[in-house]
């Protein structure tokens, strides 16, 4: 076995413990020596040392607050602003400033009593006592309501602006204006004047105001209105208007205008109104003359409501006007509406209103509902319902429990027909039934334009109050039934006649094309119909080809809809005049699945429009025309059905 080499550790151990080798110190050492120390054996006395006194603590002063420059600037600016404002206020309001409004005098010179309807001159005196001039000065005049321009009394004059320009220091300006004032005699009115101006070096507008009051003297005409302060809802009441001339000379073109609130119904007047119960032309009135107008009407409102009627008197030479252009004065009348002692209402065709629209030529069902609103019983109640109107069929009127009096076309309900009317407790009431019909349009060769039927209800009874004499009570109600126009539509098909030349086999052959003309016919009876149009949808096997140019017929390919826009259709079309017609051409390509059938050439047609008189929408429908051309010359029944190709 080979001898193993010694490791480094073993070699190191060998060197450390070897006896035959001299040890060599690795470091030189310092030799030791004896040193003598001289130290005293006792302590010698020593003089005490003076210890220094600790110094006094320094005096600490508070830190000084430093103010920034921005804060100093802000405080200085604020102080300057306050001082400047105070100085400006002192100078302006104290009279020392050149722009003080107190240094401006604005005087209005006007009569204290001004006669209505006469031109009045006004004078304005402006004095500038400031130390500088006023620039861009304007005088703005605000007149009272009803003031008119003297150059054209038909034009209202509410404001007027007069441009003055500059007013120098110490200068006095005089301006004039004229106006025509109207108002009730003895009424106080006010004129307000404002002077607007600027000063040099400023864009601000300053003002100086002044006003003056005056009394209206005699008006050219006076107006007095006598009317009840209370009105029973639905009951007739009267208003008396008296117009008197106050002018020393004749007053021409005098007119009275009525302005009515919602719910008021004008019934009649004496003399008759020139414009639908709204305007009365009295002509020329001599000095001191009087004219009287009596008006009858009803008001429909809830109990406790108030309604204000206004009457104007003035002059208007233009007889085509429906309102007074130059009113002298206005007189309002306030009515307080009370609940009727016996309330009654009329319903027709399920509708309750002052105006009810229904189709013409139809039998209508109606009801009368009544109630005792008194805290006492009412006896011997009698109800009378009257009918009036040219299109009414008098032979059709009937009542379930009442008596129809054909002589005056009225139905009467009394305790003889209905025992419940003999005595009615407070809050009691009932419902009565009736029916009537209107004549078909054109019946008897007569066509009525804008037809209506009026229904008037009158109720009366005796009030039974304990310890008092029986008192008669009554009330009334009315309803106008407006008949809508009877508009009709026909749809016809042709092959051998009409405005288009139609080709193709007859009878129609499967998978072959055959042309047809479609004709729509529109008739309208009594009222004008607005925005009328007819439309129909084509089936998938029919193709739109053409329409007469300018006929208003169009085709929308996306929806496959043919539309005819007629616009307005006059009353009597198709009755007293020719019917409206519209035609277009289509191509039929039937399928083998339609062999033996008479296919429809269009869908059903719909006519729509708005009745101008009845104010309701109207419509009519027509069945879809087919290949059965019964009204076409040259057609026979064997040509209707599709045959095999």
From TrEMBL:
Region described as Disordered: spans on this chain: 1-59, 621-645
InterPro entries recorded: OmcB-like_DUF11
Pfam (any one): DUF11
KW Hydrolase (keyword) present: no
Residue stretches making up the DUF11 domain: 230-320
Gene3D superfamilies (alphabetical): Mu homology domain, subdomain B
Keywords in alphabetical order: Membrane, Transmembrane, Transmembrane helix
Record field: compositional bias (Basic and acidic residues): 1-27
Composition bias, Polar residues: 28-40
Chain segments annotated as transmembrane: 73-93
Name of the protein described by the UniProt record: DUF11 domain-containing protein
């Amino acid at each position: 076995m080979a001898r193993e080499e010694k490791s480094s550790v073993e070699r190191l151990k060998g060197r450390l413990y070897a006896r035959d080798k001299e040890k060599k110190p690795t470091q030189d050492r310092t030799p030791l020596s004896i040193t003598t120390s001289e130290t005293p054996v006792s302590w010698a006395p020593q003089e005490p040392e003076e210890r220094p006194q600790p110094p006094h603590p320094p005096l600490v002063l508070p830190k000084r607050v430093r103010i920034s420059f921005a804060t100093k600037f802000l405080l200085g600016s604020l102080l300057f602003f306050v001082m400047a404002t105070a100085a400006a206020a002192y100078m302006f309001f104290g009279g020392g400033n050149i722009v003080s409004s107190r240094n401006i005098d604005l005087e209005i010179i006007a009569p204290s009593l001004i006669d209505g309807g006469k031109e009045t001159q006004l004078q304005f005196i402006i004095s500038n006592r400031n130390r500088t001039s006023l620039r861009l000065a304007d005088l703005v005049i605000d007149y009272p309501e009803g003031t008119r321009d003297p150059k054209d009394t038909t034009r209202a004059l509410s404001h007027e602006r007069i441009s003055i320009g500059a007013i120098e220091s110490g200068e006095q300006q005089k301006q004039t204006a004229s106006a025509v004032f109207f108002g009730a005699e003895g009424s106080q009115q006010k004129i307000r004047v404002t002077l607007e101006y600027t000063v040099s070096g400023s864009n601000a507008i300053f003002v100086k105001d002044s006003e003056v009051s005056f009394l209206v003297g005699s008006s050219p005409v006076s107006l007095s209105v006598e009317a009840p302060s209370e009105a029973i809802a639905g009951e007739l009441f009267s208003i008396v208007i008296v117009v008197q001339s106050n002018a020393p000379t004749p007053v021409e073109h005098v007119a009275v205008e009525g302005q009515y609130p919602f719910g008021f119904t004008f019934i009649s007047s004496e003399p008759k109104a020139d414009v639908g119960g709204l305007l009365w032309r009295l002509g020329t009135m001599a000095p001191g003359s009087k004219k009287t107008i009596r008006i009858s009407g009803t008001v429909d409102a809830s109990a406790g409501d108030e309604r204000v009627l206004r009457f104007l008197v003035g002059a208007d030479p233009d007889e085509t006007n429906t309102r007074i252009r130059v009113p002298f004065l206005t007189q309002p009348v306030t009515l307080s509406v009370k609940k009727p002692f016996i309330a009654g209402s009329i319903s027709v065709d399920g509708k309750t209103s002052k105006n009810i629209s229904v189709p013409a030529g139809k039998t209508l069902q109606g009801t009368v509902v009544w109630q005792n609103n008194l805290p006492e019983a009412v006896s011997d109640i009698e109800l009378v319902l009257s009918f009036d109107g040219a299109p009414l069929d008098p032979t059709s009127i009937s009542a379930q429990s009442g008596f129809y009096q054909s002589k005056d076309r009225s139905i009467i309900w009394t305790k003889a027909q209905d025992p419940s009317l003999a005595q009615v407790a407070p809050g009691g009431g009932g419902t009565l039934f009736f029916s009537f019909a209107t004549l078909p349009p054109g019946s008897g060769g007569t066509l009525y334009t804008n037809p209506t039927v009026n229904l008037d209800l009158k109720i009366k009874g005796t009030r039974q109050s304990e310890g008092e004499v029986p008192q008669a009570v009554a009330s009334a109600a009315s309803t106008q039934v407006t008949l809508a126009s009877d508009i009709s539509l026909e749809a016809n098909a042709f092959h051998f006649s009409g405005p288009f030349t139609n080709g193709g086999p007859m009878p129609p052959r499967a998978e072959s094309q055959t042309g047809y003309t479609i004709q729509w016919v529109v008739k309208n009876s009594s009222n004008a119909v607005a925005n009328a149009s007819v439309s129909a949808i084509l089936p998938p096997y029919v193709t739109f080809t053409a329409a007469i140019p300018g006929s208003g017929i169009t085709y929308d390919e996306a929806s496959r809809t043919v539309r005819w826009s007629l616009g307005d259709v006059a009353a009597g079309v198709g009755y007293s005049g020719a019917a409206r017609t519209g035609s277009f051409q289509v191509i039929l390509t039937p399928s083998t699945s339609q062999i033996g059938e008479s296919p429809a050439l269009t869908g059903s047609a719909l006519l729509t429009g708005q009745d101008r008189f009845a104010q309701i929408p109207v419509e009519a429908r027509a069945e879809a025309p087919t290949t059965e051309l019964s009204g076409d010359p040259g057609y026979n029944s064997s040509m209707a059905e599709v045959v095999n190709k």
